[in-house]
Write a structure and sequence with these properties.
By secondary structure, this protein is mainly α. The chain has helices spanning 8-23, 33-43, 48-61, 65-70, 73-80, 86-104, 117-125, 132-143, 152-161, 170-180, 183-199, 218-221. It has two domains: 33-143, Hypothetical protein, domain 2 (Endonuclease III, domain 1), CATH 1.10.340; 148-222, Endonuclease Iii, domain 2 (Orthogonal Bundle). The protein contains twelve helices and no strands. Helix 9 crosses helix 11 (183-199). The longest helix is centred in the middle third of the chain and has 19 residues, at 86-104. The protein starts with 7 loop residues before the first helix and ends with a helix.
Length: 223
């Protein structure tokens, strides 16, 4: 059985504790929500290193978000080429920035602070090319909200642990894990589950014998 049902809170806290033992506690570090939005758009279908390189080059090349909007798309593409899919991402970034300026009169997502979490999520999802993971990353890292974004690593770890079904898609994973994980644990669990998926619970050849989550893992017990 999977889902946010009775008895899951204790199991989630056990998993959180095991992850903390493996990867340490994480102190919340607030980011600018608009920076986080652009950073997360750049992260799509690429590595963190390439994403960060593209973001730095974008900020170095243009002195303001207004300059990004006013630039030719090809100039933005050139700045972010290291992040991959530059043709798509450049136009998406410009369109999102135009929409934000139109909605709020400035290149800022500070207005999210005054919105309820659901309202902020709905607004972000209304932006071109912004999906559940991106919207939740902005709210988690940029606004300190207790939402839980699901990336490829978290999806794999959660499926192997039995927190979501074997065939659960990303939308279902967001819904189930968002209900299951207490808001006060979201930030640290998000970061530590990603690290766990990269270093231990790998897609191929997972290192199960040294994993502290083995007692809670459906895949390990079923092996």
């Amino acid at each position: 059985m999977t889902g946010a049902g009775e008895g899951y809170e204790g199991r989630i806290r056990n998993i959180w504790s095991a992850l903390r033992r493996m990867y340490g506690p994480k102190r919340y570090a607030k980011r600018d929500p608009l920076d986080e939005l652009i950073l997360t758009i750049l992260s799509q279908n690429t590595t963190d290193a390439n994403r960060d390189r593209a973001f730095r080059r974008l900020k170095d090349r243009f002195s303001s978000w207004g300059d990004v909007v006013d630039a030719r798309p090809e100039e933005v593409e050139e700045a972010i080429w290291s992040g991959g899919l530059a043709h798509v991402k450049a136009r998406r970034i410009q369109e999102v920035l135009r929409r934000i300026k139109s909605d709020f009169g400035e290149y800022s997502l500070a207005a999210l602070e005054g919105m309820k979490t659901g309202e902020g999520l709905d607004y972000l999802l209304s932006l071109d090319g912004v999906g559940e993971k991106t919207a939740r990353c902005v709210l988690l890292f940029g606004c300190g909200r207790g939402v839980f974004p699901v990336d490829t690593h978290i999806h794999r770890v959660a499926r192997r642990l039995g927190l979501i079904g074997e065939k659960a898609g990303r939308d279902e994973a967001h819904e189930v894990l968002g209900q299951m994980i207490p808001p006060e644990l979201s930030y640290e669990m998000h970061i530590n589950m990603i690290q766990h998926g990269r270093s231990t619970c790998k897609a191929r050849n997972p290192r199960c014998e040294e994993c502290e989550l083995a007692p809670y893992c459906r895949s390990y017990k079923g092996a």
